[in-house]
Amino acid sequence: MTVKPIGDVLMEMKKRYDKESHGWRVLSGATDQGLYDTFILHRDRLWQMKTEPVNPFEVIGVGTTHRRVDEKLHNRIMQEGKPFLFQIAAPQRKGVVIAQGIQRYSDDSASKLRTVMSDRQEALDRELETSVRSMSLKRFPERHAMYG
Q1: Would you state the torsion angle of the CA atoms of residues 21, 25, 30, 33, taken in this order, to the nearest 10 degrees?
Q2: In angstroms, how far is CA 72 from the centroid of its own chain?
Q3: pLDDT tens for residues 72-89?
Q4: Which residue from 32, 38, 41, 65 is spatially nearest to 50, judged by alpha carbons?
Q5: Phi and psi at residue 120, in whole multiples of 5°?
Q6: The total number of structural domains that make up the chain
Q7: Minimal CA–CA distance to 111: which of 35, 2, 10?
Q8: Burial letters for 65-86: b for 16+ Cβ neighbours within 10 Å, e otherwise?
């Protein structure tokens, strides 16, 4: 599992979506560290994006792909939570990839999903969080100087 920019993760999902547009599930939830996890499931593949809000209209973040997941278990967890509208726009070299629709939002369900995914999930979560914090520090050094 490698950590990638959100735009790369969305392009990977778009290629799969273009082949089969049915059966997708989305779940988001906040972490204890003030970041957000968004999980997108399609059959045996689960994408995870960890983001930090920059303002009400923009986030920065990274993502990864989990292969060979337990589709039934993950699908059940991802149907918990409250319905919520979402939209992600990721600039690409040639245009923009936009993902939008209705997702589920539940901090508890997102946390539960993180715990059942893999033995390496804790280390991966730290890597994703470190990558997001590093991006934030580079882009907004004044925030980190102000808040520590």
Answers
A1: -70
A2: 20
A3: 888 889 888 899 888 877
A4: 38
A5: -90, 5
A6: 1
A7: 35
A8: bbeebebeebeebbeebeeeee
In three-state secondary structure terms, 35 is coil
Residue with tokens 């245009």: 95
In eight-state DSSP terms, residue 29 is E
Tell me the pLDDT tens digit for each residue of 13-25: 989 999 999 999 9
Could you give the C-alpha distances from 58 to 30, 53, 67, in angstroms and in order?
A: 16, 6, 28
> In this structure, what token pair is assigned to residue 137?
């520090």
Cα separation, 100 vs 96, whole angstroms: 13
**In tens digits, what is the pLDDT along the chain, a chain of 148 residues?**
689 998 889 889 989 999 999 999 999 999 988 899 999 999 889 999 999 988 887 888 999 998 778 888 888 898 888 998 888 777 777 777 778 888 999 999 998 888 887 667 778 888 999 999 999 889 888 876 666 5
- Sheet architecture: strand order including 36-42: 4-5, 58-67, 45-55, 36-42, 24-30, 95-105, 82-92
Domain of residue 128, residue span: 4-147
